[in-house]
Amino acid sequence: MREHVLFLFSNREAKVRKDVITKIKNFTDNNRNLDVYYLITQHADHLKELVKEFAYKHGEKGIIFVAGGDGSINEATNVIANLQTNTALGVLPFGTANDFCKLHYNKFNLDYFLNDLSRLKISPVDLLQLTGNMQLIGDGPDTIFNNDLALIKSTYVMNVASIGLDTEILKTAFHYLHKSPWLKGSAYTFAVLKHFFNLQTREYIFSFKNKDHQIDSLLAAFCNGGFYGNGFNPAPGCDLQDNLLNYVIAPKFNHLQFAKLAIHYKNGSIETQKDKLNMGLLNKISVKSADGKPFIGNFDGIIFETEHLQIDVVPKKIPFAFVGDYSQRLITDKSSIID
C-alpha cells in the first residue's frame, strides 16, 4: 500500500454527501500510518492542477482516486500520462453515468471499498491516443452551449471514443441535463428515444489493416474500456492490458434492426451480432468523412468536431489502482503488477 492517498472529488459532478466525507475521515483516523486526505475541486481546471501538484510531490509513492465521471477521469489520465509520472490513478463512481467505473465495481459500496484498500494492486493500463484537429464542443451540460472552447491536437482516452449516432445522443443528453439536471442518467435514455425516430447515417472512410473501408455508418465506437453512454456495452470483452482496442462499426439499419441491436448493445451481448456489424481488435485505426467535411465525435464524454481522426493504442501507459476482487479480475497480465 502506497503512503500517500488522495480522494479527489469533482465538485462539478460529485455531490459530496456528508456521510461520504465522514467515512473517509474515519478511515484516515484509523490508518495513521498513511497520509490519506480528500480535496474537492473549486473551479474549472482545478482537478488538473491538483493532480499535477500531488504527482510532483509524491510520485511513485502516491495514489489519486478520482471521484467523478468519465470526464473527470479523462482529465486526471491526461495529466498523469503527460507528466510520465508513476503516481497511480484510481476511480470512484461519483459522477453522472460512471461508465468507466462500471467495469471496476459491480455494486459500489464505499465501506467495502475502504476495507479492500489495503489489498489493492497497482498495474499499468493501456490508453488510446487520439490525434487530429479536434475543436471541442462541450464536456457536460454546463459547457454544451459554450462557443469558445479549445482546439486540441491530441488527447489520451481511458475509456471509449466514438463518432456518429452515439455522440448525437450524448449531445442531446447534455441539452436535457442543462435544462433538467434532476434527470441524471435518465437523460441518456430519453436522448436515445428521441434519436430512435430519426436514424441518420454518414459515409466514413475507415483505414485499418493497410486498407481503406468506405462504410455508410450509423455509429462507430473505439474502446479501451467496456461501457459508455450510461451503460451501453460495445466491448464486453475489453482488456485494459492487451495493447489492442475493440472497435464496433454499425452500418445503416432500419428502426426494427436498430431496436434489436440496441438491446444487445445495452446488455453486453453485442458480440453475438458480429454478422451484422464490422467489429474486432486493432492497435490503430483512422477515420474521415467521405465528403471531406467535419464530423462530430466524443471521447470519455467530451464532444468534439474534426475532419480526420487517428486512434492509436499506447500500451501500459499509466499505473492504475485496482481495488477489490471485481476490479482485480481485469489484471490480465499478472507479471505487470507493480505493488
Would you mind describing this structure in some detail?
This protein has 339 residues and is α+β, with helices and mostly antiparallel strands. It has 9 helices and 15 strands. The protein has helices at 18-30, 46-58, 70-83, 99-102, 110-116, 165-179, 186-196, 255-267, 325-328; strands spanning 4-9, 35-40, 62-68, 88-93, 121-138, 151-157, 160-164, 202-208, 211-223, 245-251, 278-282, 284-289, 295-299, 302-306, 308-322. It has an 8-stranded antiparallel β-barrel with strand order 5-14-13-7-9-8-12-15. Helix 2 (46-58) packs across helix 3 (70-83) and helix 6 crosses helix 7. The longest helix is centred in the middle third of the chain and has 15 residues, at 165-179. The radius of gyration is 20 Å and the shape is globular. The N and C termini lie close together (7 Å).
Q: Can you tag this structure with a few keywords?
A:
eight-stranded antiparallel beta barrel, 35% strand, 2 domains, Rossmann fold, Tumour Suppressor Smad4, 339 residues, alpha+beta
